[in-house]
Amino acid sequence: MNARVQPYIRQHCILLADFAVNALVAEVNLTPKPALVDQRGSGAHDDLTLDLMERSAHSLHPMFVAMAHAAFQHATCSQALREAIGEIGRVGEATMLDTTNGVNTHRGAIWALGLMVTASALMSLDTKPVQAVELCQLAGKIAQFEDRFIPQQALSHGQQVQKVFGINGAKAQAQQGFPTIVKFGLPELDKSRQTQGNETTARVDALLAMMTTLDDTCVLYRAGETGLARMQQGAQEVLDLGGYSTFAGQQAFNSLEQDLLRLRASPGGVADLLAATLFIDRVEQFYFNNK
Hints:
Elements: H1 6-29, H2 50-59, H3 61-74, H4 79-99, H5 107-123, H6 132-144, H7 157-165, H8 170-175, H9 179-196, H10 199-211, H11 217-240, H12 247-263, H13 268-290
């Protein structure tokens, strides 16, 4: 790589990592979120706090920098790139767990945002403005390569749920190009911004839109199909009543949250996708304004 280009590459990798960490911090600070950690408290969790989630997010910054740099080095979507970021992700996860004393704060976000950061770096090699759909499609192509070096481990909670209920999880969501983000998260974020003019409301509505359709393995693990149905139907009810900005929508939101808290059902999978949605939104704006 040309020595004169390397400072730009380094700066750009740091910028993408900043966007990723900022998206994670924005997601956890978004308030209110049903049964999730936010500025009000720990939601349905006993082992998570806002401070812990923020420290976890910042611990992942070097990992995101390294993933972006790997994309610039490989310069193409390939098996080698997939396996390079897989190894970087495992190191990042170990750093996260060391930071949190073993609490899984962002394992799902490492997967989703890691792919997004890598895809963003690859797309920055082109001269065209980055489009959200194309970014998700490229992230999906990267995810379709199998990492031959993944250690054999016991099934995660999400994998256990997929096996029991026969549903797709985070891996399939990524390999399909993040359809929940493309079809529900980003459109609702844009729609709510235009109609309500309030960023917090827009982000809450985007979260709810993704809750209406995602088979969230975190909810299924904690509360089974009963919890998943309540999450999906309750989120749809809030949106049908005009979203979180309306009085009726807020009442339905509060009812949904009370039920999810009672069931100990935290939609952590949707939260990961919200962070990815906010990242995509920021990257799309940046590249549109700078190409």
